[in-house]
User: Which sequence fits this backbone?
């Protein structure tokens, strides 16, 4: 036999054996499509729309199935019952965070979003407590959001009713709210540092949602040898972290332990209190990563939702008109909207729920892992196995939301016009890994959108029937298409 042929056959046999060992070794993983050597099931996944691929596979293999991306198994949970059972009913066992290789390289699994074990629990606990003390969900944070909403209106007035792309302006407002919490001060919208930060955050979301990055995450060895947008992502993350480290140093030089000004000050005070414990949680590095998480997640998710919201309000002017009627009736024109108004505005609240349901911002959420060997249904999932939860399958469940592919605020209204709450509403995920900033995000969406609609009429540049709301990227996040509109003073 030719030596080359023999070598090829030998390598192929070893690869097939390794796949068989993964499938038949420790644990009883759910069935799924047969993986190929080295690449696994990557050819059966549309990296431009992973969620759609998971839906198609669930029709064949059911609500719980296994995929192999490369040589690594991933258990997929599809549908409300499977997602709820895992994340809520036995949430502790499914509370691990799987590392995303493209991010792990820069963030080293610190902070809130990508940490695990004691580091995650302690950092999350401290962050929630600190944000609450600074008023997250209370009056003081509401004042900051209202102030930023007024600044947003003034920036929109400067467009003089001319066509504009709202991407930048809608990113500035939530970013400034986070800046006021983390760094104490908000930025002027034309501040050079602020412009750089905004550009990098926007670019990172575009890159993370690209098909190329999905490939890099599954085959991380490529990132060391091939050029591509992942290099820009690494550079941007490094820049943002170094910027935060610079801010931390400035805070240390002016710190007053009796008068903490913001999140960084509170963390530095805790660091001093814990200096003899030699814990991994209270370090400069973990502070930088935690601030990065608050800064990045708290800016881009809200700004993308706002951008998508305005696009939907342009496409459905009858919905916009009803919201503005409710604003006029409950709030009027001469005071700022407040969170107390929300309970008296069921239609507006239903529209906000439907926007988040329809846009399906994070289709597969962030990957989990199981923290121990878990018996789940008829399977035994080994500790450390990656878990994907399809939020699309929950937010677009046909039984809970009739015509789920249609934008319809009626999905969240009962027969009397009151808000109808649904356990299927999981845009922030669910369970122990639920988004830390959920209450802040809900507040921002309500106050920013009602303030905009209180002061402006939205004018589309094309016939609303021609507006396409299909996302241009649907990997990590659903990114809306670019568009322009006019803000006509009311």
Assistant:
């Amino acid at each position: 036999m030719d030596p080359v042929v023999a070598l090829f056959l030998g390598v192929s046999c070893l690869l097939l054996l390794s796949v068989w060992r993964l499938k038949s070794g420790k644990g009883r993983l759910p069935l799924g499509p047969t993986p190929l050597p080295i690449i696994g099931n990557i050819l059966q996944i549309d990296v431009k729309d992973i969620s759609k691929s998971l839906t198609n596979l669930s029709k064949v293999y059911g609500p719980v199935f296994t995929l192999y991306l490369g040589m690594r198994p991933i258990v997929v949970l599809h549908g409300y019952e499977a997602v709820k059972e895992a994340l809520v009913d036995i949430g502790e066992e499914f509370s691990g965070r799987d590392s995303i290789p493209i991010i792990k390289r820069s963030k080293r699994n610190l902070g809130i979003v990508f940490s695990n074990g004691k580091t995650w629990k302690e950092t999350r606990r401290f962050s929630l407590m600190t944000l609450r003390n600074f008023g997250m969900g209370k009056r003081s944070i509401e004042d900051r959001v209202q102030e930023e909403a007024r600044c947003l209106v003034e920036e929109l007035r400067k467009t003089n009713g001319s066509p504009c792309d709202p991407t930048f302006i809608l990113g500035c407002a939530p970013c400034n709210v986070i800046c006021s919490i983390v760094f104490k001060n908000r930025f002027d919208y034309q501040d050079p540092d602020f412009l750089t930060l905004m550009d990098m955050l926007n670019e990172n979301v575009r890159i993370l949602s690209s098909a190329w990055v999905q490939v890099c995450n599954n085959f991380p060895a490529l990132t060391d040898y091939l050029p591509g947008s992942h290099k820009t992502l690494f550079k941007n993350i490094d820049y943002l972290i170094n910027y935060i480290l610079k801010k931390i140093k400035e805070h240390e030089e002016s710190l007053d332990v009796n008068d903490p000004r913001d999140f960084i000050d509170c963390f530095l005070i805790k660091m001093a209190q814990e200096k003899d414990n030699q814990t991994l949680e209270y370090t400069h590095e973990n502070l930088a990563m935690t601030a990065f998480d608050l800064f990045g997640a708290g800016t881009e998710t809200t700004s993308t939702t706002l951008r998508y919201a305005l696009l939907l309000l342009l496409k459905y002017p009858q919905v916009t008109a009803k919201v503005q009627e409710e604003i006029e009736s409950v709030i009027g024109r001469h005071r700022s909207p407040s969170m107390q108004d929300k309970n008296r505005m069921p239609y507006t609240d239903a529209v906000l729920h439907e926007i988040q349901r329809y846009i399906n911002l994070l289709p597969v959420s962030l990957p989990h892992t199981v923290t121990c060997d878990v018996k789940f249904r008829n399977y035994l999932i080994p500790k450390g196995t990656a878990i994907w939860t399809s939020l699309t399958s929950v937010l677009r469940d046909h039984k809970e939301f009739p015509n789920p592919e249609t934008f319809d605020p009626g999905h969240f209204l009962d027969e009397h016009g009151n808000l109808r709450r649904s356990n299927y509403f999981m845009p922030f995920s669910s369970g122990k890994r639920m988004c830390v900033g959920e209450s802040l995000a809900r507040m921002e969406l309500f106050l920013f959108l009602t303030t905009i609609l209180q002061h402006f009429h939205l004018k589309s540049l094309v016939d609303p029937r021609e507006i396409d709301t299909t996302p241009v990227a649907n990997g990590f996040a659903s990114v809306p298409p670019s568009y322009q509109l006019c803000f006509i003073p009311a």
About this structure: The chain has 17 helices and eleven strands. The radius of gyration is 24 Å. The longest helix spans residues 284-315. The chain has a mean pLDDT of 88.
